[in-house]
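hiii, so i know i said id send this last week but things got crazy w the move. better late than never?? heres the sequnce for the chain we talked about at the cafe, plus the structure i predicted for it. fair warning i was half asleep when i ran it
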Amino acid sequence: MKRIFLFAFYLILLPLNAWAEINQSTDTNLNKYPNISISANPAAVDSTLGTGIVQQYIEKFFHIRDNHGIRIGGAWVGDANQLFSGGVAGVDKLSTNSLLILDLSVDMQKFAGIENGLFDVQFLQFNGQDTNGDAGSIPGYNGLPGAPPLTRSELYQLWYRQKLFNDKFIFRIGKLVPTFDFGNVIRPVPLTEANLYIPAVTGLIYTPLFVNATMLGVMPGYYNSAYGVTLNFVPTEKWYLSLGAYDGSLAQGVQTGQHKWPVFDGAGFYIAESGFSWLLGKNKMPGTFSMGLWHQTGLIQGSATLSEHNSTGIYLFGSQRVWYQHPNVDNDGISIFYQLGQSNSYSLPMEKYVSGGFTGFGLIPHRENDTFGMGAALTALNQKSFDRRTELILQAYYQAFVTTGIYLEPALTYIPTPAISKNLNAAWAGTLRAIVLF
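okay and structure toks below
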């Protein structure tokens, strides 16, 4: 336990000391950035990262008056995890993870006169441990560590985005993270009125929030991005259609995130999603619903002994504000979310998935920027690979706003049926996570 408190001490104090200096130098600009709930892993849901605070400091220090549309940002996410009970025998009960993303984006209209164009490149550095494996979890109760290797440096994103026809049609091409555009239940719900805005729908940390469990192993995402193209059609503010085609070699175990160039081996991942939003009742409570269909071509190597060619799946997700503490005044209140998924694959590790939860915004006195929530994720496992039928993850969290760009989030997880083996006892795990945007 001593190690946990020491880690937490450094996790909190080091970023605060650095940010105190920056805040003093850029206090006139900080009001641009709303202090709202964010995802527990911004690298999995946000295409451009950071607040730009460090860039503001640099520009002020060097008296730079025109940045020509160049924006520098990033994020650091670190956590410590303690298994209080259960888990795999003989493993270290304490594990830590660190994720660093550096982001450079260029507004092409300011830089080169190309209207509504945007270029972005990101570098990823991850250093972690097998936190989920230690607990015996297959879907993953912690969304930071993914497939090995657990120490990696990679070109995470490299793309060009163009908006056309009054922003009704948008395409993005290059090395992409498809989970930004598909199956993204965490995505904030922007509306025309400033007080009708749902920030990140939840701050829960389990992996299937960021990629539906039935697509794990085939869909590129954090931290295995892939080359491809994304098309977005947005004819109205309340309806959209998105299409995507990507390098599908992840299904064969290729770590696409670590490849600088696409792997042309005949495998492809194709996906389509459509959704709409609404305002419910006299208090105009916003909600969304989306549904998608995906198809993987080529060889799918689900495990060392299970493989197939081609697979298809469907999924849906949504969110709804269900209560305002102060209607038509602010965002304080409660929202819910839900996810479902199913595939026809007989080699992928997970066949069906359902999840749901709630989030409370601004309900703690004198802590209007804090959020808390609970969620449950139930995954039906492939019986050819596992001797348990399902894995259930129950999780609760509290996300505390520290200062602009810094959040501290403790989470408690209970896994009554760890999937790795039916002989494993239920696992209790605690996580302390820090999120720093810059």
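btw The mean pLDDT is 89. thought thatd interest u
miss u guys!!
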